[in-house]
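Researcher: Here's a chain I'd like modeled. Treat it as a single chain, no partners, no ligands.
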Amino acid sequence: MLDRGKSTSGQRRGPYAPAVGTVRAGPVAGLAQLVRDLGCDPRPIFASQGLSPDDFTDPDAEISFLRAGKLLASCAWETGCPHLGLLLGQRISSSSLGLPGYLLHTAREVRAALVDLVRYFDLHDRGAVLTLHTDEGMTHLGYAIYLPDVPGTAQIYDLSIAAECNVMRSLCGDGWNPSEVRLARGVPEDVAHYRHFFRAPIRFDADRSALVFPTRWLDHPLSSANPMLHRHLEKEAESLHAEQPRDLVRQLRELLRGALATRKADAPRVAGQLGLHERTLNRRLRQAGTSFRRELRAARYQMAQELLANTRLPLSRIASALNYADTSAFIRAFRQWSGMSPAAWRRRVADS
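Model: Modeled as a single isolated chain. Structure tokens:
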């Protein structure tokens, strides 16, 4: 069963930050009804994962990120609906995201709203990170899983990018459309559902999952702006952040996944995000029995596995996404990690 965010005395704690490796149940609260709408009984499907549809009546309940991925994959398989994640994502509103979702609508403009959403996203989801960066007049709002060996990643990315699109339409108007949608998953048999919802060109087999839109939208003012309420919610979010255990290595691993997705995984930049000088970061990592290079290698290996397993990207594109100088350097590194070439590893996964 799920952890419903209660104290040891059994009383509700109120707003709280989910534990590492978990996600709030809010985004999957509509999954059971979606399965029914697709003509299946959700109870045996949920039971196969040790869950019940009743577990999702409280949007603040926590669910293991890995279990959520298994549940989504199982529901997609049993309903025969490979785009189930997309359909579920279409039903998600910003309020499904809890405190970060409420906070973004009180900001003064889209830029501030998205910065808040990225900063406080871990108060909702502790298995992935949101990324936000601008390049040549285009802004990329992305979602990247940082936990290893997550099942159902195609469903998770479909769900998350669809939810991002709903968030942007709630901020900018129902007529808002991205310029491009990128999904780090294989091409589905039927892409019509994706085109109908996103109303934009879609790039499957991408090296990252993100919405791409003109940067001018960041200056779009919000009619729902409420400075006083925003300060109150921001103070509450900061308080929840302060209550979280400060595990430097875990923080670094989360940051590195987002940094790789935006190709900004250099030590000085990441140290600055942690509020540390690079030398201080290196010293503290040595004390923890690791190093920046070791953690970067591990993050690259995880991302490489995800792209090899879930996309048909050529090795040259994966090497570029991981910031390797050339394909040969990537192949050598992957052999050191896994004991086999990337092509052989990809074939083994496809055959399993």
